[in-house]
Design brief:
With 308 residues, the protein is an alpha/beta fold. 44% of the residues lie in helices and 23% in strands.
């Protein structure tokens, strides 16, 4: 490897023409200049300086190396400037892993806004479900994991991780538009839905466990009539009048699906959405931008009618 400091000596020599003048400009001895130039020639395995009459001059190889060195010095100056901008928060590069609805309603609007407010930042988004996002964080494949409260999260106080709350997200009941309960402004699990046909995910999934726990707290076990793996399938079954479902608000926010209404649940379940980083990492400016996006979602929205 070529020592950059020796390249700087070579550049100074080309500017000042003599070893003595170069030494004076660099604040070192002439012997030190000669030693550095000799060491650089040894590293490159070509002569860089030759005697011409009573003075030393650059060889052709020396001039070629100096031309390349100017490019290297320019890049180093850019790197130093970028590091200064990074230190002051105006430049950064972040890889974000998030679950699908978190991307749709939190990460995407946050990154879109930051493109205008923080143009020096570069974001790369990767879909990563909660059971995988922490592992990706550990291996360095992502810098921020947008995830939710679940058994897959590291325990609070785990070394190597920092937890940053993003939002507390309610779960809402999705009903066919002509369902008798569709006219109610708010539903009660225990009295309204204990005998309903439920559309749920498979046991053992975060979605199923959250809904089942809420129903158990209300005093009944939900009758899981249809089992799906994603929210769009649940919405299709609800719209067809085949049952009811309870989904996180991020799952339906911003959608317009025919023949469905969404109703909040009195004292219903909630899940915590978090940004997880490695210890010492700074989640800003993305964290603030996601919280602002989350605020627009959690503000009460009346009857939550999707579409008739």
């Amino acid at each position: 490897m070529i020592d950059v400091r020796r390249l700087q000596v070579l550049r100074a020599f080309a500017e000042h023409h003599t070893v003595a003048a170069t030494a004076e400009a660099l604040g070192v001895t002439p012997s030190a200049v000669s030693q550095q130039l000799a060491a650089l020639a040894k590293e490159t395995e070509v002569p860089l300086v030759e005697r011409s009459n009573r003075r030393f001059v650059l060889t052709g190889a020396g001039r070629v190396l100096l031309e390349r060195a100017q490019v290297i010095f320019a890049e180093l100056e850019r790197a130093q400037a970028d590091l200064a901008r990074y230190a002051e928060g105006s430049l950064g590069s972040v890889r974000v892993g998030a679950f699908a609805t978190g991307i749709s309603n939190l990460v995407a609007p946050a990154v879109a806004r930051l493109r205008h407010t923080h143009p020096g930042w570069d974001f790369s988004v990767i879909q990563a479900e909660p059971e995988h996002s922490t592992e990706l964080l550990c291996t360095g494949e992502i810098d921020i994991a947008v995830t939710m409260s679940s058994p897959h999260l590291p325990a609070t106080g785990s070394p190597g991780f920092q937890f940053h709350p993003v939002m507390v997200e309610p779960l809402d009941v999705v009903l066919p538009y002509e369902h008798p309960l569709a006219t109610k402004m708010e539903l009660d699990l225990a009295t309204d839905l204990n005998d309903a046909d439920w559309i749920m995910s498979a046991p053992g999934t975060v979605w199923f466990d959250t809904v089942a726990a809420a129903c158990h707290q209300a005093g009944f076990h939900p009758r899981s009539t249809h089992v799906v793996t994603d929210f769009s399938a649940a919405f299709a079954l609800v719209a067809a009048g085949l049952g009811v479902s309870m989904v996180p608000r991020l799952a339906w926010h911003g959608m317009a699906i025919a023949h469905m209404v969404v109703r909040p649940v009195r004292n219903g379940p909630r899940r915590h959405v978090l940004a997880v980083t490695r210890s010492g990492a700074n989640p800003e400016p993305l964290l603030t931008a996601m919280r602002e996006a989350a605020h627009r979602i959690t503000v009460p929205a009346g009857r939550f009618v999707l579409s008739a």
